[in-house]
């Protein structure tokens, strides 16, 4: 099973308890064709043979699965390497049209061609480290209650993600929608920059899972807290911890799970808001 146990703090109402939670794994996977690293994707480390073949077919690198020979998967450095040998004519065509590829998760590692570059990229991605204001669990609840009123596109289509900027009291100030969760967050970061918003005075709420790239984008923007309505991944938790970012997942009105910086979550009486 591509999941790992992570120490968490579960919050329900005004009480918090220590617990363990299974977090889905997200690792960099380097796809290597005929000895040349072509792209690094972020994926769960299961069924990587199927992933490699499907990627090769869907990207038009090969036309038939039998054009892939000697497929080998191994763990190395910061992730996994999948090495394939493809027919000579396919490899020559691939070299002619090599380009940066967009990962299936819209990852912040796309365009990096080897696992060796990932550690340095991760360090750069988390600098400068965000600050650390204390966030109330009731501020999270308040932002969640406001969320549906700020998502007209989702109300009409049921098919959009939202990324909201909330102040420390839980009031939504800006929200951007998009069919892709990464696009929604990019739009929000752009809106904050154009409006010269003081990003240290609030947090981001997203209607999706918290993957590596979602944490990365938040940290790069200098924002110190990310709240997601769905689950994080192991790589997201790891990056959040290294960046000093408060990461909350499974956010629901009245309960949520804290994956990093639990000391920054303040349990306050609901009458505060």
Describe the structure.
It contains 8 helices and 14 strands. The chain has 273 residues and is an alpha/beta fold. It has 2 domains: 3-23 and 128-272, Cytidine Deaminase, domain 2 (3-Layer(aba) Sandwich), CATH 3.40.140.10; 27-104, Ubiquitin-like (UB roll) (Roll), CATH 3.10.20. The chain has an 8-stranded mixed β-sheet, with helices on both faces. Helix 6 packs parallel to helix 7. Residues 99-109, 123-128 and 269-273 have low confidence and may be disordered.
Roughly what is the average pLDDT, rounded to an integer? Answer: 84
Our Rg estimate from Cα atoms comes to: 20 Å
What structural category characterises the helix and strand content?
A: alpha/beta
- Per CATH, the superfamily of the largest domain is Cytidine Deaminase, domain 2
Percent helix range: 25-40%
From the 3D structure, determine the CATH topology of the largest domain: Cytidine Deaminase, domain 2
Number of helices: 8
Straight-line distance between termini: 42 Å
Number of domains: 2
Total beta strands? 14
Biggest sheet, open or closed, and with what strands and sense? 8 strands, mixed
The SSE string, one letter per element, is: EEEEHEEHHEHHEEHEHEHEEE
Estimate what percentage of residues fall within beta strands: 25-35%
Shape label: elongated
Low-confidence stretches: 99-109, 123-128, 269-273
By CATH reckoning, the class of the largest domain would read Alpha Beta
Neighbour order of strands in the largest sheet:
2-1-13-12-11-10-8-9
């Amino acid at each position: 099973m591509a999941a790992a146990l992570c120490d968490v703090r579960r919050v329900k109402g005004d009480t918090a308890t220590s617990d363990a939670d299974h977090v889905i794994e997200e690792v960099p996977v380097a796809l290597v064709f005929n000895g040349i690293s072509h792209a690094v994707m972020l994926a769960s480390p299961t069924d990587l043979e199927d992933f490699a073949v499907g990627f090769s077919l869907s990207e038009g690198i090969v036309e038939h699965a039998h054009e892939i020979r000697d497929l080998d998967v191994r763990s190395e450095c910061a992730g996994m390497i999948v090495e394939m040998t493809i027919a000579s004519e396919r490899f020559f065509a691939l070299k002619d049209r090599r380009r940066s590829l967009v990962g299936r998760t819209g990852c912040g590692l796309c365009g990096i061609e080897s696992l060796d570059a990932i550690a340095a990229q991760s360090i750069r991605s988390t600098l400068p480290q965000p600050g650390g204001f204390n966030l109330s669990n009731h501020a999270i609840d308040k932002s969640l209650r406001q969320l549906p009123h700020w998502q007209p596109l989702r109300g009409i289509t049921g098919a959009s993600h939202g990324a909201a900027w909330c102040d420390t009291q839980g009031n939504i100030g800006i929200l951007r929608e998009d069919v892709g969760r990464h696009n929604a967050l990019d739009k929000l970061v752009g809106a904050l920059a154009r409006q010269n918003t003081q990003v240290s005075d609030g947090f981001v709420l997203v209607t999706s899972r918290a993957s590596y790239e979602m944490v990365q984008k938040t940290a790069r923007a200098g924002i110190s807290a990310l709240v997601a309505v769905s689950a994080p991944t192991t790589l997201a938790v790891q990056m959040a911890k290294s960046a000093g970012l408060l990461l909350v997942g499974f956010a629901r009105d009245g309960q949520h799970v804290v994956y990093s910086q639990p000391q920054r979550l303040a349990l306050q009486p609901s009458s505060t808001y």
